[in-house]
Specification:
Keywords: ATP-binding, Cytoplasm, DNA damage, DNA excision, DNA repair, DNA-binding, Excision nuclease, Nucleotide-binding, Repeat. By secondary structure, this protein is of the alpha/beta class. Helices cover about 35% and strands about 15% of the residues. Strands 5-12-13-3-14-15 form a six-stranded mixed β-sheet, with helices on both faces. It has a six-stranded mixed β-sheet with strand order 19-22-23-18-24-25, sandwiched between helices. A three-stranded antiparallel β-sheet has the order 2-1-4, with helices on one face.
Length: about 775
């Protein structure tokens, strides 16, 4: 007979209203694998991450002292009536693993720490404790590059225009203008004639401009620190990781700075003593540079009683990385260079061998970046976590992962304000028969293109050898849709981004984070706000600045944010709706100005689709160029599948797939000749993939060339041309294993991609 403790076998959600959820109540079985499905923007993440995981995290945080909580990220109470039977939640998401150039796969998984201990015990000659093998500690790091493994050379002609004087704007570094404070520090330092062209400087003046050590000078009536321009650039820009830079800064660094391996350590990051210590003829830097699958074999051969438990733990970690499909990486791979999917799988490794049980694991599209061949392995890992007695919650669109679910929760029926409801809960078989959008598309298959478009020329890639590429030469056809595919780690991104990404006529649309504050939203990012403000100004005979929440029209209390942030010192800060503007961000006087019955806050609260209809409806002045400009931008956002997104939604809340489609909408206006898209189906529901395919066709039909790095079989089947890399990952990949039409691949191909595409189209 069961006890009362056995009755808590479901997570009970009652009255969830986070974001677009409409008073959602649902029971989720514990110690089972539950997949949450629904179109993009239907409320899946709001329910799983914003409600269940957030409340679990908040309750755990509250067990710490107020002092400890002051150092933790604040987690607000979700908008829900009741949550019962929660267990501790671990979120395994796709957030990049930081942009610190000292963080590697080895440091992130603790594998490098175990390797350091191993070398401190067995390495010959013995050079010290484990700290002597760390490139992040003074006793181990290379003194020349300080453990970074590379040094930089700056092209002075990218910093200055020698034909101009300082007063004419000779310094071309971002942030320096002729009359700006930074330039005037140099111009008024007394070391040079500010009206003399730089090409006429003496050797001493050149040295003072570029390399002079810090010294105090008087500029006007102020004492300031003068610093040579090269030293300032090194301190301001080169001390930061490239991935964390703003786009214009990154572009400047890419052109002005050349990075090369440190001549002292040859890129190994460590000092000579650490590199001299070896186990079986191999030093620690050589171990870290090995492909993880090879390193696992090397570790398995170490047989020493004193380190046997350590070797077993290290081998288990490395085997987990191989099993999860990351055996092609190396421990010295920088964390910042991992894709979102790779970062998520690296985080998974920490939990596979955990002794904890009865945990709730929450995954955000764990199949992102995985070839169909790799998805089965990911499914096995999810099932292993469940079989240990854990509750596994997965937000996912791929049918292969939906199939293994014990329980499915389908949200919809639409996106944004048209979603937020439970449309189905139950088994996968029941979902198929339910008639919901997800149920109807579960067995939907894109057909092979019957008549592929003929190319109008080719871009030749010759001798590509970046990363694992093995002297690859291939012709990419122009004027068609080309899909570049292959297992994860086969060299797809290295081939396309490495060979074509820097061309002037190429637009690359990726999933990297969009830099912006909590004031940034789709309206500001796309430039939509400018014609909207102008339309309001014209209609009311006032100036456009009134309709900017960052300018004159902003509510004075919340400064145009709509929220008031209260710092509670030792407690977590609280964000509350501004009482003065009621979250509308503008002053009452501004809100009195209307455009066809709507004020500016009501327009910014609209979804993209609603706003497009608003600016194109009958009665709107069609000849008004500002409103036509707004409608054009909104039309592009609808075309890329973002019709459900609110115009005022903070950019920080968008997913990786949404960010990529937002960038694509902007780039569509540039009429570039070649577009490179990196997994554009990320975050797309099965029903939305068809819309994406239509958009890609339009880009091609308008005269463009579209190159898509993708694993989704529907996109492969729809392509005019396929380039398949492999046959495996890492050093087992890096070769072209097929080029041709999808029909030829299905008919004659023997690659892993051919096998899965054949099964997909039912051949």
């Amino acid at each position: 007979m069961g006890t009362a403790a056995d009755s808590h076998d479901v997570i009970e959600v009652r009255g969830a209203r986070e974001n677009n959820l409409k008073d959602v109540s649902v029971d989720i079985p514990k110690r089972r694998l539950t997949v949450f499905t629904g179109v993009s923007g239907s409320g899946k993440s709001s329910l799983v991450f914003g409600t269940i995981a957030a409340e679990s995290q908040r309750l755990i945080n509250e067990t710490y002292t107020a002092f400890i909580q002051s150092f933790m990220a604040p987690v607000g109470r979700p908008d829900v009536d009741a949550l019962r039977n929660l267990s501790a939640a671990i979120v395994v998401d796709q957030e990049r693993m930081g942009a610190n150039s000292r963080s590697t796969v080895g440091t992130a998984t603790d594998a490098h720490t175990m390797l350091r201990i191993l070398f401190s015990r067995l390495g010959e000659p013995h050079v010290g404790t484990s700290g002597a093998f760390s490139f992040n500690l003074p006793e181990g790091m290379c003194p020349e590059c300080e453990g970074l493994g590379r040094v930089s050379t700056i092209d002075v002609d990218r910093l200055v225009d020698r034909t101009k004087s300082l007063n004419e704007g000779a310094i071309t570094v971002p942030g320096f203008t002729a009359d700006g404070w930074l330039t005037q520090t140099y111009a008024q330092s007394g070391f040079f004639d500010p009206d003399l062209p730089l090409e006429q400087y003496t050797d001493q003046q050149w040295h003072d401009l570029l390399h002079k050590e810090n010294t105090k000078v008087k500029v006007g009536k102020t004492n300031v620190t003068y610093e040579g321009l090269v030293l300032r650039v090194q301190r301001s820009f080169l001390s930061k990781d490239r991935e964390s830079m703003q786009p214009h800064i990154r572009a400047f660094v890419d052109h002005a700075v050349t990075f090369k391996d440190c001549p002292e350590c040859l890129g190994a990051r460590l000092n000579a003593a650490a590199l001299s210590s070896k186990i079986n003829g191999v030093n620690i830097a050589e171990c870290a540079a090995m492909q993880i699958s090879d390193l696992a074999d090397w570790v398995a051969k170490i047989d020493d009683e004193s380190v046997r438990p350590m070797v077993a733990t290290l081998k288990e970690t490395l085997d987990s990385l191989v099993e999860i499909g990351l055996g092609y990486l190396s421990l010295d791979r920088q964390s910042a260079t991992l894709s979102g999917g790779e970062a998520q799988r690296v985080k998974m490794v920490r939990h596979l061998g955990s002794a904890l049980t009865d945990i709730t694991y929450v995954f955000d599209e764990p199949t992102v970046g995985l070839h169909p061949h790799d998805i089965q392995r990911m499914n096995d890992l999810l099932l292993r976590l469940k079989d240990k007695g854990n509750t596994v919650l997965v937000v996912e669109h791929k049918p292969e992962t939906i199939e293994i679910a014990d329980h499915v929760v389908d949200l919809g029926p639409g996106a944004g304000v048209h979603g937020g409801e439970i449309t189905y809960t139950g088994t996968v078989a029941g979902l198929r028969a339910s008639g919901t959008l997800t149920g109807r598309h579960l067995d939907h298959r894109a057909r092979l293109r019957p008549d592929p478009r003929a190319p109008r020329g080719h871009i030749a890639i010759t001798g590509a050898n970046l990363h694992n590429l093995k002297d690859v030469s291939v012709d990419i056809p122009l004027g068609v849709l080309t899909v570049v595919t292959g297992v994860a780690g086969s060299g797809k991104s290295s081939l396309i981004h490495g060979s074509l990404g820097s061309r002037d006529d190429v637009v690359t649309v990726d999933q990297s984070p969009i830099r912006g504050s909590r004031r940034s939203n789709p309206a500001t990012y796309t430039g939509l706000l400018d014609p909207v403000r102008t339309a309001f100004a014209k209609a009311n005979g006032v100036k456009p600045a009134l309709f900017s929440a960052n300018s004159e029209g902003a509510c004075p209390k919340c400064k145009g944010i709509g929220l008031v942030y209260t710092d509670l010192a030792m407690m977590a800060g609280v964000a509350s709706t501004c009482e003065e503007c009621e979250g509308k961000r503008f002053t009452p006087a501004v809100l009195e100005h209307k455009l066809r019955g709507k004020d500016i806050s009501e327009v910014l609260a609209m979804s993209v689709t609603e706003a497009r209809d608003f600016f194109t409806q009958k009665g709107s002045p069609q000849k008004d160029s500002t409103q036509k400009a707004a409608a054009t931008i909104l039309g592009r956002l609808v075309d890329v599948g973002l019709g459900y997104v609110s115009l005022g939604q903070p950019l920080t809340t968008l997913s990786g797939g949404e960010r990529q489609r937002l960038k694509l909408a902007i780039h569509m206006a540039e009429k570039a000749s070649t577009y490179i898209l990196d997994e554009p189906t990320t975050g797309l529901h099965l029903a939305d993939v068809d819309q994406l395919l239509g958009l890609l066709d339009r880009l091609v039909d308008d005269g463009g060339t579209v190159i898509v790095i993708e694993h989704h079989q529907a996109v492969m089947a729809h392509a005019d041309w396929i380039v398949d890399l492999g046959p495996g990952a890492g050093h087992d990949g890096g070769r072209i294993v097929f080029t041709g039409t999808p029909a030829d691949l299905v008919a004659d191909g023997s690659t892993l991609t051919a096998q899965h595409l054949r099964a997909y189209v039912g051949r």
